């Protein structure tokens, strides 16, 4: 069958307009936010409007051995949705239905709804969906499921997987299977729901999600601290993280702070080596958590450490959320997501400073510090091939450092295609091989997202 | 090889005393707390003292195609550790090492330590391991991992899987693999840690566990309410569960309450149809959660609904924990673990009353009501074959009812061998088949706990 005939067969079984093939439109599906330069425009995109359409597209792909790249909002940061010219992208961006059930405090949602949209919808019912990636305004729930996304409140309220009760999934053979459901406790059979969360589109395409919700979030109080030394900040963070349960414990270094200040002009301290943003939502009029955090921060020689007004707190939380786009203004970035045990946070930060100096690249750093999860942002000028090469070297060195410290190459963004070469070194050949057994058992022809997490068979 | 020579080969590769073969000792390994009458004494038991000994025993079993039944404290309630005469039991009861790390707020523990022992040890460090099965004084951490055990505080603090960061596992081929680790956030590769939790010994034997801990639990306030009608109690529970986050929301019916009162003599209300035990650990001097719960309970026509002193609260929590042994005094029990969405709790309770009446068996009921998870206890006299037959019929009818209500056959005890015939009807043939693919990929010769969750190949 010619390439044109193949696509016409797909168009024939889907509604008009569902299959995108014009080069201008396809270009928008070439990369995700990792901007992998080696990504290619896909052969075609199906913008599905229903589970049945996803199923139809998967059956076509399985029949013709066409690789499938599942895609949400395209905001992934590890190249898990990088396009390739032989592949079909199945996008869930148009699948946006949502239904809140106040009586069971759950919501059933399709994968294309954005995280912030979901939060707003459930808030109208006095409810709360906690996971809040910094990118929550632009990332989709489907993508959050694919990567088991974290965020700022996760230090107290957990990550995506902690809220997923049920999934509907299209398998590699085109079957639609429902896993879990609205029940809060259910141990009937292996936990396939939690296995699909974080599987980065390698096992199937999630078409519907049942999420557990909490009551509306309690009000919180916010502390801002500035430090002359990153070690002091790290020590204070470690003391807080092992003693209480802050509802937020974030960190930015000087370079990240300056990039944010350049963009937003919020009057941030451009001279400080480290910025710590901490919050407590404890409903205690004595404010013991806030008092403890202030003491802990002040014990470690800050420039200042003070509670801030709610409005200013929100502004600074937004500043922290804006750090990645703010740094991107200065060049292209290779985005890291490495994590360590919290007592090793200072070691990780120092090691990254060494890597930056040795490779002569800027690596501004932000962190969900209370989880030990950092985002070093390796900045380079894509027009400068030598600098790009140094940046790529630094990217690998940061992951190697994290592994040497007993840490992870990815805390919340996923392995994607970009971090796959380091995965085995972290988790070991045996764990990788166990994962490969599941991949092979679920998707024997390797049609789903080949090259993400697992090697392609032909490599 | 003769049976004797086979066992001698095992004895030769393990330390003296590790292999148990005398009939008196073996009898103690015949059943777990499900007391399945069809269980058989195993061929031998290895009481392992180290990962290496588990590994040696698994290799021997794999070489000779001997089924392996992993066993913790033997307190399982679904027959997941029922013995069989052709099998080797590998018991982890002697593996009891534990090491707390305050700086990372984690603990590394071997599977044989009891839940209550772990709680006490971490409490010495000012820390808290929340999951608290009613049986916490006698169940082991390894068993908790195997079933993804719940408990009383889970309504607010989650179940076992929410605290497991890392595992060491012996696989069917005798390899030892480490999964996850001490990191709070880590999405590198498929989440095999969460897959092993709740896998009931069908995928491997867990030999070491890394658990996340919380700061010491805050003090809580307790409410006791008595109702004339189970519907009223159920409505009040549903209202509380969808509005706030109680730290405990438990239920017992009249028959369970009377059994506990017979055993403990605490002055419980023998006439009330339903008992509700609710707690809040909100640190709010205005006590808004307690006030809300009292209002909600009082709106639904209770006999009484009052806050109780801390000491009496602890006594009644203990009463609730004693319900299963208290009911067991009246005969043998078939223990159910069915759950539904909370708004369907009253329907489930009524349906079970019908099943009890129709089958002329007593079915006292207790529940982690805030999770929709109930424990109907079907009581029968094992000397009365007709009554036993009616009890067995009722056992199946209760699961069928839960499935018809969109619920689960097991919320926290596991499928074991006793509930397996109902599993497919709940989760569907496709989900069961996906689980079977994982089982076959991890344990192709089906040596680990055959008949638990999955059918035996020869069936």
Automatic annotation (TrEMBL), chains A, B:
A Pfam family: FAD-oxidase_C
UniProt keyword terms in alphabetical order: FAD, Flavoprotein, Oxidoreductase
Cofactor: FAD
All copies of domain FAD-binding PCMH-type, residue ranges: 38-216
Keyword Ion transport assigned: no
Transmembrane segments: none
Record-linked InterPro entries: FAD-bd_oxidored_4_C (IPR004113), FAD-bd_PCMH (IPR016166), FAD-bd_PCMH-like_sf (IPR036318), FAD-bd_PCMH_sub2 (IPR016169), FAD-linked_Oxase-like_C (IPR016164), FAD-linked_OxidoTrans_Type4 (IPR051914), Oxid_FAD_bind_N (IPR006094), Vanillyl_alc_oxidase_C-sub2 (IPR016171)
Protein name (database record): FAD-binding oxidoreductase
Organism of origin: Gryllotalpicola reticulitermitis
Lineage: Bacteria, Bacillati, Actinomycetota, Actinomycetes, Micrococcales
